[in-house]
Amino acid sequence: MSTTRPFSPGDRGPEPSGASGASESGLPATGGSDEGAPAAGGPGGGTVPSLRHVESVASAEASAGRQVRRLALAGQSGVVPLARDFARQALYAWGWLPAATADQRAAAEDVLLVVSELVTNACLHADGPDELWIACDNKVIRIEVSDKGTGQPAPRTPHRAGRPGGHGMFIVQRLCLDWGVMRTPGVGGKTVWAELGAPA
Predict the structure, then answer these.
(1) Where are the alpha helices (DSSP H) in the chain?
(2) pTM as predicted
């Protein structure tokens, strides 16, 4: 698992803008913000094009099957349950919930758990999250949590299941297809992303 790659191996290029908070209908989602997103920093230190583009790209991607929602979390209280509720609403809107099978239910629960872990990690190690961004197509759901922290999240090694704490990134690593960290050269903070497969 890479913790520095700006795009996952199966990524299909730049992500749509979260600025519009576009949902499957192209309408703004609740909690959206109009601020732009940082560009990703490549492993070699170069600049990679911004993952999120202008609103028209988000609308085009949404109509082409990519569904996007964005929630500003900076300055909010109770961000973990707020983020979980936001993600749950997105899963209902995108047809992941209500789940018809045990596999679909497990996939939705995994998404909610990863959202909780990423937001909790930002709370514990980065003075809180700035934003939650979640996108879905027919095969993959992508979660991004941005914060102002400088640390590098990593699963605790060795992982000790019997000890409290230190399980967040281990859980993310185990549940996700891939995950990593994006940084913008010359700008503080980071975005931690994770991708999970859609239920069969």
Answers:
(1) 55-63, 79-93, 102-125, 168-175
(2) 0.68
